Amino acid sequence: MGVSNNITAVVNFIALLASIPIIGAGVWLASKPDNECIHNFRWHVLVLGLLVLLVSLAGFVGAYWNKQGLLAFYLCCMAILIALLLFILLFSFIVTRPDGTYYVPGRGFKESMLDGFSPWLRNHLTASRSWNKITTCLADSDVCIRLTQDYISADQFFNSHISPLQSGCCKPPSACGYNYVNPILWINPVNPMVDSDCYLWTNEQSQLCYNCNACKAGLLGNLREEWRKANIILMVAVVVLIWVYLIACSAFKNAQTEDLFRRYKRGWV
């Protein structure tokens, strides 16, 4: 029984370590400018990571000090947390699978097309009520202002690898043919009829292209890139947690069997 509890304590310590990359991924996602403006998606991964940390700590304490009730609580809660992480992984893979970004000839960055992204993301993030709040948040951030500090000449800017969010919100669509002055100042469109966004662009710093479909698509493009990267970390962490959980279940079952055998032996004697 002591050996089984020691095994459970060790695997729970591994689970505790596995929660660290989940927390890290949650902090990284929450710190991104686009996620700062989308409160609905900001803290889910971080909260789950913290819960995995606390539950793993409870399992470690239960195994180390032979608290069977605490171990049973750990196994129940960890099963729920693993199921939630698997759901988030599967859901995020499904909604981030469509990619609306495309390369523009002669540009180092990509632009985005709103119809190319998941309908679920479009409906939940670009609805008028939600978008008004996001627009205000983006205008108050330094997402676009940073471009004027990083790029000076037109060639330097056109060959840059700016994010989909910056590409869609901080400049007019390339098809409009605006002339470059600086990354957030453009004049004299050549083809204003090409895209309705051409008429929505303004050099007003608080507006730029925040009301453009290109900006909405750029936000979805940013989210897609970030969640795809975070999913790799989450996938590895979930595999480790499932492996640890199965070992912990086996060790807990063995400890229970050994405890019953010990009690039976005492009663027989």
UniProtKB/TrEMBL annotation:
Bilayer disposition of the protein: Multi-pass membrane protein
GO biological process terms held by the UniProt record: auxin-activated signaling pathway
Keywords per UniProt: Membrane, Transmembrane, Transmembrane helix
Coiled coil regions, renumbered to chain: none
GO CC terms: membrane
Main localization, broad class: membrane
InterPro entries from the UniProt entry: TET_plant, Tetraspanin/Peripherin
Bilayer-crossing regions: 6-31, 43-65, 71-95, 232-253
Family, similarity comment: Belongs to the tetraspanin (TM4SF) family.
Protein's name according to its UniProt entry: Tetraspanin
